[in-house]
Design a protein that fits this description.
With about 350 residues, the chain is of the alpha/beta class. The protein has a single domain, classed as Alpha-Beta Barrel (TIM Barrel), CATH 3.20.20.80. It has ten helices and ten strands. Strand 1, helix 2 and strand 2 form a beta-alpha-beta unit. Helix 5 runs parallel beside helix 6. It is globular, with a radius of gyration of 19 Å. Belongs to the glycosyl hydrolase 5 (cellulase A) family. One of its GO terms (molecular function) is hydrolase activity, hydrolyzing O-glycosyl compounds. One of its GO terms (biological process) is glucan catabolic process.
Length: about 350
């Protein structure tokens, strides 16, 4: 989520929204398709640590989940705040917040969609960097061990280590990612797919740039997963500085080229990739065409891409946010036209996508 978006939300989130609860569940799903075609349903990462449910933050409603399931999306990337789920480092998870997380997961499962758990913290806890004295790697590993135990070996739940590590040395982030992954595989005994970002907001366009030490593309090649079931997560926007804040698509060709270059890196190293965030305004043909071009890169290279989740939607998103594809009273947002071919065409099902354990 961008700085601009956070400012909009801070002003807009003044009223609570009641969550629609669903008690229905289904047995652990063998996913309908082998590739993720998903949506970020934002809301549980809103506000400050603590906060009141349905006043300061919310989890996705039944209405919203059902809408995106009806459009063919098969995955929800589910952002939330680490500090709410674990109010004290190295201590048990908060029972009430775990309950809300579980309700959201079951609500999504009821529509036969997968869930990506996304601590949306930019490699920070209460403002302090992971791998620092105040938030040591052991604390990050402890958090993931506790969280992973909730869904260990339930393969419709995927573990996204962290949203957009930012302004953190790559060596520091790599150590933290390795320790968290070791805890997931060891202490939690979980073999779920893990999504691993780089630093510098994990941009595809900057994957080979030495921004915080070595380039992501050099350092993250040393990432270690004892379970060997992971994919590298990148984000990519199309505006002037690739931040998603400028409400234009001036760098659309560069954004598509960035995904193509990342595809080559994945293939060269024998890795899998995942496009966790991408989005653009819906009011211009150029933007719609560029979004489709980005989706096409992932769909045309299923030997290395596990799929994508569009940013953004959610019950509390303001209608003025141009990347938002939460439906309006008038109907669908125009960006769906770029995503629809991939949502409806599953002709390659089971053939070309990397297998998910």
């Amino acid at each position: 989520m961008t700085q601009k978006t956070r400012k909009i939300l801070k002003a807009a989130l003044t009223a609570g929204v009641a969550l629609a609860m669903s008690g229905s569940t289904f047995a652990q799903a063998t996913a309908a398709t082998p590739c993720f075609r998903g949506i970020n349903l934002s809301g549980a990462e809103f506000g400050k640590p603590g906060g009141k449910i349905n006043k300061d933050y919310t989890w996705p409603s039944e209405e919203t989940v059902a809408y995106f399931a009806s459009k063919g999306f098969d995955t929800v990337r589910l952002p939330f705040m680490w500090e709410r789920l674990q109010p004290k480092l190295m201590q048990p998870l908060d029972k009430d917040e775990v309950g809300r997380l579980k309700e959201a997961v079951e609500r999504i499962r009821a529509h036969r969609m997968r869930i990506i758990l996304d601590p949306h913290n930019y490699a920070r806890y209460n403002g302090h960097l992971v791998g620092s004295e105040l938030v040591p790697d052991a604390a990050f590993g402890d958090f993931w061990a506790r969280l992973a135990k909730l869904y260990a070996n339930e393969h419709d739940v995927i573990f996204g280590l962290m949203n957009e590590p930012a302004k953190i040395p790559i060596a520091q982030w790599l150590n933290a990612a390795n320790q968290a992954t070791a805890a997931i595989r060891g202490k939690a005994g979980a073999d779920n797919l893990i999504l691993v970002p780089g630093t510098a907001w994990t941009g595809a366009h900057s994957w080979m740039q030495p921004i915080y030490g070595e380039p992501n593309g050099v350092a993250m090649a040393r990432f270690e997963d004892p379970g060997k079931n992971f994919a590298f997560e990148v984000h990519q926007y199309l505006d002037d500085d690739f931040s998603g804040t400028k409400n234009n698509c001036s760098r659309s060709d560069d954004a598509v080229d960035a995904l193509k270059s990342f595809t080559l890196w994945l293939r060269e190293h024998g890795f899998r990739g995942f496009l966790g965030e991408f989005g653009a305004p819906g009011g211009k043909v150029r933007c719609i065409d560029a979004l489709k071009g980005m989706v096409d890169v992932t769909e045309d290279n299923k030997d290395v891409w596990t799929g994508w989740t569009y940013w953004v939607a959610g019950d509390w998103w303001p209608a003025t946010e141009e990347l938002n594809i939460q439906p309006t009273a008038e109907g669908d947002r125009p960006q769906l036209a770029a995503l629809k071919p991939a949502l409806s065409d599953f002709s390659a099902e089971g053939k070309n996508c990397p297998s998910l354990n």
